[in-house]
Amino acid sequence: MGNDKPRIREVNLTREESPSVRTIRLYDPRTSNATPGQFAMLWVPDSGEVPIAISGTQGEYSEFTIKRRGEITAEIHELEAGDKIGVRGPYGVGFSRPEGPSVIVGGGYGVAPLRYFHQRHSRDVSLETLVGAATAAELLFVDQFNPQIVSTDDGSKGHHGFITEVLEDFLAQSDFEMIYTAGPEPMMAKVYQICKTRGLKLEASLERIMKCGVGLCGSCLIDGFRVCKDGPVVDLDRLDGFSEFGRWTRTSSGKKERV
Ligand SMILES: Cc1cc2nc3c(=O)[nH]c(=O)nc-3n(C[C@H](O)[C@H](O)[C@H](O)COP(=O)(O)OP(=O)(O)OC[C@H]3O[C@@H](n4cnc5c(N)ncnc54)[C@H](O)[C@@H]3O)c2cc1C
Ligand code: FES
C-alpha cells in the first residue's frame, strides 16, 4: 500500500496541550519514520482532510498537535482513545539535519514540527530554542524545549511582545550558523530579514491551503512553487525568490489575501 491511500488508524491517546491545542497519538509506522517538518493528511470521515505536521514519534507511534480552528480541527479535538481517523503521508520535504549549534524559533502551534525536530536532534547538536505564543497558557512544549527565551503577546510570561523582538540580541551573544523556524508567517518573515542581515542560514516551514497534499491540485502554490510537494520546508535562497512570502496567501477558494 502506498502512502497516498488513507490508512484507518485508532487513536491511542489524546492530550490537552493548551486551551486551544490537543495532541493525538496514533500507531502509524509510516509517519513514525518521517523527517521532522514533513506532514500527513488527516482525514475525518464525513468532515474532510487537513494537513498536519508530525509533532513527535515514539516507536511506531506518531503524534500530531492540533489547534482548533474550523470544522475539521474541531472534530479532531472531539476524538477520544479508541476512535478512528484516516492518515495519508508522510508528505513533503522536511528540515535538514543540523550540522552545528543552531537556533529554533517557534510561534503558536508552529512549534509542532519543531518539537519533533528537537526530539530527533537535540542529543547530537546544541539546539537553543526561542518560543512565542499569544498567552502563557498557549505556550507549547516548554518542558520539552526548555527554551532560552519565551515571549507572550499579552506579557503573561517572558518577554512582553513578539519573540522576534529579542532574537537579534540573543543571536549577538553566540555563534550560530543556522535557524530553523515555524509559526505565523509575519514572524517567519521577520526571522528571514534578521538572517539576511546577519548572514545566517535559515529553514522555514510554510503553510498554504492544501487540498491534495501531493502536488496535483495547485491550491498550495506560492509564486508557482508547490508547498505540499517541494516544501513545506524551504531555505533562505528559496524564500528570496518568493514575492508573496510574508505578504500574500490564498483562501480555500483561491482568492488572494494579506498574510
Ligand atoms: C504543511 C502544513 C502543516 C500544518 N501543521 C499543522 C499542525 O501541526 N497543527 C495545526 O494545528 N495546524 C497545522 N496546519 C494548519 C491546519 O492544516 C489548518 O489549521 C486546518 O487545515 C484548518 O482546518 P479546519 O477545517 O479546522 O478549518 P477551516 O474552516 O478550513 O479554516 C479555519 C481557518 O484556518 C485557515 N486555514 C485553513 N487551512 C489552512 C492552512 N493549510 N494553512 C493556513 N491556514 C489555513 C482558513 O483560511 C481559516 O481562516 C498545517 C498546515 C500545513 C499546510
Ligand atoms: S495541495 Fe494540491 S498541489 Fe499542493
What does this structure look like?
This protein is an alpha/beta fold. The protein folds into two domains: 7-91, Elongation Factor Tu (Ef-tu), domain 3; 102-258, Nucleotide-binding domain of ferredoxin-NADP reductase (FNR) module (Rossmann fold, 3-Layer(aba) Sandwich). The chain has helices spanning 29-32, 71-78, 111-121, 142-145, 164-172, 185-198, 227-230, 236-240; strands at 7-18, 21-27, 39-44, 48-53, 56-58, 61-67, 84-91, 102-107, 127-133, 149-152, 159-160, 178-182, 201-205, 221-222, 225-226, 233-235, 248-250, 256-258. The chain has a seven-stranded antiparallel beta sheet with strand order 4-3-7-1-2-6-5. Strand 8, helix 3 and strand 9 (127-133) form a beta-alpha-beta unit. The protein is globular, with a radius of gyration of 17 Å. The termini are far apart. Residues 210-213, 215-220, 226, 228 line the site of FE2/S2 (inorganic) cluster.
Brief characterization of the structure:
With 259 residues, the chain is α/β, with parallel strands linked by helices.
